[in-house]
């Protein structure tokens, strides 16, 4: 088995003790649900993928990724659920 060379780490340890790898990241054409958004945010925050790489890979805008990161930082993963937008929206 051959491993493709990557510029950064292949796995990172999350704060809860779990391991996140490149293979755990969602496919680029994915349907966005809160758990997949949270995986991308964790990967960026822990240095598994770079911010620019995440934006390019998933076709996100700077503002969209910033909103995900901000929501997780302020309110946790539940803030990424579409049904919770109204609850966590800043006035």
TrEMBL record:
The organism's place on the tree of life at top rank: Bacteria
Short name of one Pfam family: DUF1153
GO terms of molecular function: sequence-specific DNA binding
Gene3D superfamilies cross-referenced by the UniProt entry: Winged helix-like DNA-binding domain superfamily/Winged helix DNA-binding domain
Annotated InterPro entries: DUF1153, Trp_repressor/repl_initiator, WH-like_DNA-bd_sf
Protein name: DUF1153 domain-containing protein
Organism the protein comes from: Paracoccus halophilus
């Amino acid at each position: 088995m051959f491993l493709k060379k990557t510029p950064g780490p292949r796995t990172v340890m999350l704060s809860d003790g779990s391991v996140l790898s490149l293979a755990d990241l969602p496919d680029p054409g994915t349907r966005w649900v809160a758990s997949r958004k949270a995986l991308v945010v964790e990967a960026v925050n822990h240095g598994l993928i770079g911010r620019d790489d995440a934006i390019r890979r998933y076709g996100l805008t700077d503002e969209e990724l910033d909103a995900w990161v901000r929501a997780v930082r302020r309110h946790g993963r539940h803030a990424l659920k579409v049904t919770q937008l109204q609850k966590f929206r800043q006035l």
